[in-house]
Amino acid sequence: MSDESPKGQLMGIFAIGVILLIIIGVGLGGFFIKRWSITVSTMKEGLKRL
Q: How high is the pLDDT of residue 30?
């Protein structure tokens, strides 16, 4: 690995950024899906009680 070419360095930084964004996106997505399913199940329970 030679860091002589600035383009190669830029591509490496860009790739790391994209990977981090994907990880954060998947993490947030999973969190929101979990919260959403909990909300839906509590709403269903509330409707059953009515």
A: 87
Quickly list DSSP for 4-37: --HHHHHHHHHHHHHHHHHHHHHHHHHHHHHHHH
Predicted confidence band at 31 (pLDDT cuts at 50, 70, 90)? confident
Q: How many CA atoms lie within 13 A of 19 on its CB side?
A: 6
CB-side exposure of 15: number of CA atoms within 13 Å? 6
- pTM of this structure: 0.52
Using DSSP's 3-state secondary structure scheme, residue 1 falls into coil
* Encoded amino acid at 49, one letter: R
